[in-house]
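Bumping with the actual sequence this time:
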Amino acid sequence: MPRMDPVERLRQLRERVRQGGGEARIAAQHEKGKLTAHERLELLLDAGTFVETDMFVTHRCDDFGMAARQIPADGVVTGWGQVDGRHVFVFSQDFTTLGGTLGEAHAKKICKIMDMALKCGKPVIGLNDSGGARIQEGVLAQGGYADIFLRNTMASGVVPQISVIMGPCAGGATYSPALTDFILMVENTSYMFITGPTVVKTVTHEVVDFEGLGGARTHSRKSGVAHFTREDDETTLALVRTLMAYLPLNNQDPPPVIEPTDDANREEPELDDIIPDDPRKPYDIRDIISRIVDHGQMLEIHAAYAENLVVGFARLDGRPVGLLATQPAVLAGTIDIRASKKGAQFVRFCDSFNLPLITFEDVPGYLPGVTQEHRGIIREGAKLLHAYCEATIPKITVITRKGYGGAYNVLNSKHIRGDFNYAWPTAEVAIMGAEAAVEIIHRRELEAAGENREAVRAERVAEYQATFCTPFHAASFGFIDDVIEPRRTRPTLINALRLLTNKQQSNPPKKHGHMPL
């Protein structure tokens, strides 16, 4: 029998590995509305740029009949490629081969590309679709997860890490995505939880299905675990590419600046009248943001979670920036526990990767109430404060309406190293609103006024408003750098960002701070 040409044999082996679990299992994957591991990588990466590594690695387990089982690529495709011409490292778990379960070799493949990512200073994107730990390999599988967790932690703040949940992700497997910077989930086909519905029912007698326990909707709205969700594999992977366009490759690289195509001096006259005359009337802060950033485009993060705070990425003059804004249309823009955690996480990410931070402020304070106090608003609220205080990136604040109390301090005030702090003429910078302040300051006078109480009260409110409920009182102490015309907000921010391009600031030497966790 003639010997097969070595090159032809290599081609056949590669094709066999690429077929994963075979045609039947690929068809089953497609019937669920899911793509295969390789199909996903083809959509994620620039055409023709993927280089696969460790294609022929396989397990070493001889127990429970595993010796006779061949698992192509050991259930995970690893390698590197490009997104918009920039290199990234990737792994894509293959559910068609033994459910994409993780064993020793599977974990080592992932660890290998994570080590390379750190060495090369490139992001890591993980496409998760796995039945969890490979039970046949026992503690080797457990150890494999721990090896990955360590690398997630070491890479944190060094290179961006993105996790895309495209199928099951349960038990210990969930902690790797939880340690990364962004989690995306596919609606109806992905889920994450520590213990499944059966165990939950057995232990707590609660009845819940997979979607209700750990589906995309649950984690994007209730738990806040998922930063983004999309309806299918294709749109989710397209979103990863969009997200990558705002991120630097590592913590030493600048964010990816593009040639600006939106006028840096563009004014928006509509902003002059966008704040309602009634200070209690809500408005959508996104209407302000969209008129200021390049072409009105913002990639909002955690859009369905803690909606009283808006965070996301946009560009100003072609330069990526992080945006954090209180949302007057939800809970009057107050800061609660969930918003504090959401904001702190975002500020720290921006600080880690040199993304300038723009804060839009209209905040009457922290959300009051027994529930908030009992659940730790003091501790949780301090997270956002700590994040702003330690951040050394360019930080700019625009107060559009209310800047009250401790929340004013927290949202990048001058006192915590805000670089430029601007206010619109409609801004009120005070300890609290005039009506509440008058009730405290003039309590005895109001009690003695009798029938004239309302007239006296109105007079004192007007006095307080004229003195404190303007931006000029704070500006007189230098706490506000300038009171600007709303229409001039875009060029004002761009000029400030240009000046801060090479900002140099550092924190005292220390191993790390002690954020109130």
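The tokens above came from a reply further down the thread. The first strand starts at residue 51 and ends at 53.
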